[in-house]
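Retry 2 of 3 after timeout on previous attempt. Resubmitting structure tokens to design endpoint.
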């Protein structure tokens, strides 16, 4: 663990996709984590990825590094992305999470009603 004495975290979330501020399953998962540590959430508005510093600064360089390459293995993709660097010296670190995530999960019964004041 990088910060064993941390008492809170700030999570910067893009406004779309699976972590959308409107999806209750995301809120339910956050609540489970919030039961163990204080969490502050900042959602970028939908379609405003340009304000996300990671996406804005790194994605063009990652895209350029992968341009024209046929992805034949996960190892190749990881290597291409890890070799990405900006002129200012920003570097990309890649960690592959080898996990299968459940799809079409449903929010627990009563979660919306129980937490309607929070959202």
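Retry 2 succeeded. Sequence:
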């Amino acid at each position: 663990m990088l910060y064993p004495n941390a008492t809170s975290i700030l999570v910067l979330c893009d406004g779309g996709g699976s972590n959308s501020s409107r999806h209750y399953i995301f809120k339910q998962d956050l609540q489970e984590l919030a039961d163990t540590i204080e969490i502050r959430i900042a959602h970028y508005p939908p379609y405003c990825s340009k304000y996300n510093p990671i996406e804005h600064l790194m994605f063009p360089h990652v895209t350029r590094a992968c341009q024209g390459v046929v992805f034949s293995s996960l190892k190749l993709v990881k290597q291409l992305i890890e070799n990405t660097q900006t002129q200012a010296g920003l570097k990309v670190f890649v960690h592959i999470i080898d996990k299968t995530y459940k799809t079409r999960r449903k929010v627990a019964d009563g979660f919306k009603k129980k937490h309607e004041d929070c959202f």
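Attempt log closed. The chain has a mean pLDDT of 83.
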